[in-house]
Structures are given as structure tokens and as C-alpha cells.
């Protein structure tokens, strides 16, 4: 692998949001700790009450999100033998988006950027699947909360799954510029990187 592609991998970035339920459940430290011990590097962090406008822009950074999420939701209703609220995926995601706006603007949230090799994929693995009922044991959504689509649908609210994490590199880059200004992200060296990324591990013995 040449120098440029190695550098590209090491500089992959992802955006993570600890949603208001994560803050209220006193899980900020636990959640940050899980990313911290992975070896990824925290390069930006702040706490804020997000606006509805920001949340709308955040979910719409991927122009396909409304269609894909709508189709996925309709399919999962049908798989369970249930009637979806609408056959039109855009109508389904209109409801989901409104619920998400209410949920994520309800109180303080923590937003972060983590950087390092395969940052997007590593973080998605640590976060776990979207619906806490089926998220894997050992993941943030699997270990620390108990919600389901079924109950959140009955309540007419978004599923409370503690965190958001970017779905892919392109989504991550678009989300990062939405939440952070230039200069709020830090460029620095983290000592463990000299082991994580060292090719020959030849700097250990004296
Ligand atoms: P994520 O990347 O794991 O957060 O999942 P998505 O990007 O697919 O979905 C974003 C958000 O939309 C989720 O956190 C849920 O709030 C909501 N959502 C996604 N799929 C469904 C679904 O099948 N049913 C319901 N009720 N909400 C959903
Ligand atoms: Mg997503």
C-alpha cells in the first residue's frame, strides 16, 4: 500500500451524536470511553441543544435517505405481517423525520468527530444496529437501552437508540461540515497511533 492510501485510511473521519436520551441516562462517559479505547482519535467535541433545522439538514445530507429508509421501514412492517401506515416511502419518512426532530431537539446532545483507520465502519460496529431490541449484545445500542420500533410506533415517537453514527464516508464528511466550523476540529498526534499504525513494530525495544 502506498503512502497516500495509507494516509487516507488513517485520516477517515466519522460523526457521532449522543442523543438527548444518552445524555439524560448519564451515558456520555461510557459511550465516549468505548470509542476512546478502540484506538480512534477524538478531534472535535461539543455539547448543544440542536435546532429542528439542523436535524432536518442532518438526516437529509444523503438525498436518498428518505426513500431508502421509507422502503426499509415498509418492508419491515410487511415482514412482521403488519400494514405500513403508508405505501409511499416518502410519507413514511415524513413521520420518522418529524419524530426525530422532536426527539433530538428535546435537550442537550453531544456531538463528536472521531478519526482513524476505518473510523466509519469501526464506529458502526461499536454502535450496533438501529433498533435496540435487535442490536447485538456488546454494542452501545444493545447494552444500554431497551426500545423497539413496535413500542415507539404505538407511542408515536422516534425509537430511542442513544446515538447516531455516520453510515458511510461521504455521509460523514457532509455531516461534519454541518455540525462543526473550521477550527473546531483539531489536528494533533496521539501517542498510541505510533503503535497502531507502525508497520514493523520496531520502535518498542530499547
Ligand atoms: P442509523 O444509521 O442506524 O441511525 O439508522 P437509519 O439511518 O437507517 O435511520 C435513522 C433513524 O430513522 C433511526 O435512528 C430511527 O429513528 C429511524 N428509523 C429507521 N428505520 C426505522 C423503522 O423501520 N421504523 C421506525 N419507526 N423508525 C426507523
Ligand atoms: Mg443513518
| String of helices and strands | HEHHEHHHEHHHEHH
CATH topology description of the largest domain: Alpha-Beta Plaits
Q: Report how far apart the termini are.
A: 28 Å
Q: What ligands can be seen in this structure? A: guanosine-5'-diphosphate, magnesium ion
Helix content: 40-55%
Q: What is the number of independent domains? A: 2
Q: How does the major sheet shape up?
A: 4 strands, antiparallel
Strand content: 5-15%
Total helical segments: 11
Number of strands: 4
At CATH level 2, the architecture of the largest domain is 2-Layer Sandwich
Quickly give the structural class. alpha+beta
- In the sheet with the most strands, the strands line up as 2-3-1-4
Which word captures the global form? elongated
In CATH terms, the superfamily of the largest domain is Nucleoside diphosphate kinase-like domain
Summed over residues and divided by their number, the pLDDT gives a mean of: 95
How big is the Rg? 18 Å
- CATH C-level class of the largest domain is Alpha Beta
Amino acid at each position: 500500500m502506498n503512502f497516500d492510501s495509507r494516509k487516507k485510511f488513517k485520516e477517515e473521519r466519522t460523526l457521532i451524536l449522543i442523543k438527548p436520551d444518552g445524555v439524560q441516562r448519564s451515558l456520555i462517559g461510557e459511550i465516549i470511553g468505548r470509542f476512546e479505547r478502540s484506538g480512534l482519535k477524538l478531534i472535535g467535541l461539543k455539547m448543544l441543544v440542536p435546532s429542528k433545522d439542523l436535524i432536518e439538514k442532518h438526516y437529509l445530507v444523503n438525498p436518498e435517505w428518505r426513500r431508502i429508509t421509507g422502503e426499509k421501514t415498509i418492508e419491515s412492517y410487511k415482514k412482521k405481517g403488519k400494514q405500513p401506515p403508508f405505501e409511499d416511502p416518502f410519507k413514511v419518512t415524513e413521520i420518522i423525520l418529524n419524530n426525530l426532530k422532536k426527539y433530538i431537539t428535546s435537550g442537550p446532545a453531544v456531538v463528536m468527530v472521531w478519526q482513524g483507520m476505518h473510523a466509519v465502519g469501526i464506529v458502526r460496529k461499536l454502535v450496533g444496529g438501529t433498533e435496540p431490541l435487535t442490536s447485538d449484545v456488546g454494542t452501545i445500542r444493545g447494552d444500554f437501552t431497551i426500545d423497539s420500533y413496535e413500542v415507539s410506533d404505538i407511542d408515536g415517537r422516534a425509537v430511542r437508540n442513544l446515538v447516531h453514527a455516520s453510515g458511510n464516508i461521504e455521509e460523514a464528511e457532509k455531516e461534519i461540515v454541518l455540525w462543526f466550523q473550521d477550527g473546531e476540529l483539531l489536528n494533533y498526534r496521539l501517542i498510541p497511533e505510533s503503535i497502531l499504525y507502525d508497520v514493523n513494530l520496531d520502535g518498542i525495544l530499547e
